[in-house]
UniProtKB/TrEMBL annotation:
Residues 43-197 form the DUF6801 domain. It comes from the Bacteria. This is DUF6801 domain-containing protein. It holds the Pfam family DUF6801. InterPro entries: DUF6801.
Amino acid sequence: MPFRINVRMLLAAGLIVLLTACCLLFVAVRGAAAATPVAKKLSFTCPFPLIGLQKLDAVIKADFEVPTAPGGTLTTSGLTITVTVPDKAARGLNLVGATTVEGTAAAEVTLVNGDANPLPVRIPLNVGKTEIPAAGSFSPVATGSVPTVTLAKPGKTTLTVGDFTTRLTPKKADGSFTGLGSFTSDCTLDPGQDPVLLSFDLGGTPAGRHYTVAGKTGLKALGTTAPLTGGFDLSPTAATVFAGGPVFDRTHTDFRLFGFVPGAADLEFVADGPQGGDLTGTGFVARPRFTTVLPLVTLLGMPVSSGPGCRTSSPSTAELRTGDGFTMAAGGALTGTYTLAPLTGCGAFTPYLSTFVQGDGNTFDLVLTPRKA
């Protein structure tokens, strides 16, 4: 009988380590600043039969993205929890025939966003199936799928850890249960640690961003596209407003009038007045205002217009929106449409050229890539 109690004590000690890993998993999910990798250690105390209260540590790694304005989402990626289970626990688990261990957990945290009421959040977690060696330590890795949380209010935002419940199951090689069945324990954060996992002011002026631009513009009336390169400098002037916009390099396009007359044109998009837009969640809406200049137009290989005077008679305004998956830190897709006004200053061919250029339905399809200022 004493021997059987000893075995259960060893098994419980091993399971405690895994249970704590699940608990600390959720701590990692919410404990960092925007677009920042984190590696953190926290300790919890878990009560267990026979061996009483036990204190365990775990190492947590994750990347986080904090929204730049109200209405954005708090997101998590690259989340892992690694716990080193000692040789003593491995040998104890082997005594009851266990060759693997796996389990689940439920974690509770409290989110406070500005003046909104505290929001309790309960997240399911998993400890992946992990093989137990005949001797020596082993390191189970815990992961979890964390839903995004929309932060609607401006002001101070905090996330505070609460209590955790975990349940693990050691199994034999054939997949059957050991005599322990499934093991459940409630764990609490040890005192003397800061339970606030994340704290920031949502609504302050975000940092500026600088991107390189690559993509294309589609010219509907001409039935062609032109490649685009350049840059995009974004300078927030308030929590949800920014100044700046795209600056494109001179580009070139080839086309065919009526499907058989070859032509070519150089294009420049020249900013007209102040540029800017709105910050929206993890992305933005830009509204660049620009004049389209055609410094060189040829038909059948011969110039029919040259010089900067050939341009649209009034500016265009595009509405460029960031796409799904865009973040301020990583960049992503930026698309929109614009209308071209009739041309002016293109010489004797102005009315003729204008009919093949003006109109709506023109497009920008761009990708922004972060660059250093």
